[in-house]
Design a protein that fits this description.
- It is an enzyme of class 4 (lyase).
- By secondary structure, this protein is an alpha/beta fold.
- It has two domains: 17-213, 2-enoyl-CoA Hydratase, Chain A, domain 1; 217-263.
- 47% of the residues lie in helices and 16% in strands.
- It has eleven helices and ten strands.
- The protein has helices at residues 41-55, 80-83, 88-107, 123-130, 157-165, 167-176, 182-187, 198-213, 217-230, 235-250, 253-263, and strands at residues 17-22, 25-30, 63-68, 73-75, 112-116, 119-121, 133-137, 141-143, 179-181, 193-195.
- The strands form two sheets. A six-stranded mixed β-sheet has the order 1-2-3-5-7-10, with helices on both faces.
- It starts with 16 loop residues before the first strand and ends in a 10-residue tail after the last helix.
């Protein structure tokens, strides 16, 4: 949620979320540029539908890029006009919808890269945090300004931001509502890679997906499952999750092929099972 987004009702004639496919890459675009891509309930619902459909694609999609349309914002926050009349119970339901979108992103086997160009504030930062990692342009800004509206992060910010940047910095950002630029976000570990402009960022994200796609698809999926499940758990629990994932990898044909290819000094022919 943010003080930056504009309160504009989604255009019924145009879908607020578009999904395009480029080979093994899927691009999910939040397309409300006049509202700085604010997350109205309709947008959250459309995002949930998009990721449910991507989950059905299996290994035909090896990576997903999440982008915002318009060039000014990834997502500048939740839609304040939509939030203003809500009862406490309706507010909780909206929060649960935001968490559902995040859960769908985290449960997707394919890695998801948030490609941020412009504002990623409030719900926009929370959406980016649900992705596997964040790429950003130098023109990007990050923050959780909900307290300036009498709110707190409602889509996962109090959970995922401390895991990304540490508890102290997360508290500082959430309590103050302060924004940080892309360079600061990269130094803090929030942003994985920084680019001079949108074009180079998207090219870099596609190249990363291609690099991932060359690996054993089963192993990538297992690794993501373990990383998501183990995050924030006690070490003993996390270790057991990793051992279970390691065991599952031994059950795959890809593991046998990868090891055989290494020993035979040839390129592996992974088949995704």
């Amino acid at each position: 949620m943010s003080d930056e987004q504009r309160s504009t009702t989604p255009d019924a004639a145009a879908p607020p979320v578009r999904v395009e496919r480029e080979g093994v890459v899927a691009i999910v675009t939040i397309d409300r540029p006049k509202a700085l891509n604010a997350l109205a309930p309709e947008v959250l619902g459309a995002l949930a539908e998009a990721f449910e459909e991507l989950a059905q694609a299996g290994d035909a999609v090896r990576g997903v890029l999440v982008v915002g349309a318009g060039g000014r914002a990834f997502v500048a926050g939740a839609d304040i006009r939509a939030l203003a009349p809500l009862t406490p119970e309706e507010g909780a339901a909206t929060g649960r919808l935001g968490h559902r979108v995040a859960a769908l992103i985290e449960s997707l086997s394919a890695p998801v890269i948030a490609c941020v160009d412009g504002f990623a504030l409030g719900g926009g930062l929370e959406l980016a945090l649900a992705c596997d990692f964040i790429y950003a342009t130098d023109a990007s800004w990050f923050g959780q300004p909900e307290v300036r509206l009498g709110l707190i992060p409602g889509f996962g910010g109090t959970v995922r931001l401390p895991r990304a940047v540490g508890l102290a910095l997360a508290k500082e950002l959430i309590y103050t509502g302060r924004r940080i630029d892309a360079a600061t976000a990269e130094a803090a570990g929030l942003v994985a890679r920084r680019f001079p402009d949108r074009e180079s960022m998207l090219a870099g994200a596609r190249a990363t997906v291609e690099e991932i796609a060359a690996n054993a698809w089963t192993a990538v999926g297992i690794a993501k499952r373990v990383l998501v499940a183990a995050s924030g758990t006690p070490t003993a629990t996390a270790v057991e999750l990793e051992v279970a994932g390691f065991e599952d990898a031994f059950r795959t044909d890809d593991m046998r092929e990868g090891v055989a290819a290494f020993l035979e000094k040839r390129e592996p022919g992974f088949r995704g099972h």
